[in-house]
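Fig. S4 source data, part A: sequence.
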Amino acid sequence: MFDLGVWGKSKRAAEPPPNLVYINELKSQKVILRGIKCKCNKSWCPICSLKTVINRFCGYVKDWDWRRVRHITLTIDPSLFESPEAAYDLLVKKKKIAGMIRNIGRTLEKVVVDWCWLLEWHRNELPHWHLFVLVDKAGYRGQIGADKIRHYWTYGRIEEKPIKSESHWKKMTDYLSKHGYFQKDKAHQSRLPEWVRERKSIIKRFGRMNKSRGNEGSRNEKLSESNNEFDKLINESKLCEWFERKESEQFTKTQGQLLDDCGNKTDVYWGLDGFKNFWGRLDMPYHEFKCMDGKYMEGLGYVVEMDRVKLELLRARHFLCSVH
């Protein structure tokens, strides 16, 4: 290894994981690196959520028959709870939405084919849910009835609406897929309130009907097989301790801190061969990485060429980890 002097003692230097390919093993004196903006992929991130949770929701309902969809909005009466957090914790812990759907099918003789929901927020930091229920009958015959729903949702106001037309359904889902919320001037409904940002536990944004109960045995077998392969890979690479350390670090951050980290780091790859050769994550914003001598290449990111000494200095100052 090169003698880095004060660079190697930088406070920003991080301990590399055991599987790092050190610079002195490279045969070439010049190396090519590609940097891309590191994204958090969190469901409440205004940028990443469009490709994660919002994309999953739109994909989940894309084949639904709009004539059999009931759009139900579930709100919370603030006078019934000490705080928005207390209201959320109670309703989620008791699985009140799933329980309400079961009661609708059991007592109201409505056949619920499928359902899913998206969570949003009011300005007073209270949550509300957009629940979409796919029933077996179209139009008026599929109506559940606000009074009947209210019998099982006693925590606030409810509103049931049909989907007016195919264009209405498409317009609603298209707008959501582009903006992350349902209506114009409602961007605040997709932003986490302060009490959620201060939490370390995850707040689910999207929920759906559990369809795996009938195949629980085969599902568990597949999960077990997958976990065995993963454990074998981890043991062979001697990364167990490193993974445990990174997981413990993950849960020391609040949801707000994780969202604020989005885009503040850079993922770096070797060479120009797609996204196969991941080198590591740098504690360096992408806009700083682009200040290095190089050029942007469409579909690859910002490409730089440097000698081994500069590469080692970059690793010592900014390297965080080598696991994607």
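Fig. S4 source data, part B ends here. Residues 48-211 form one domain.
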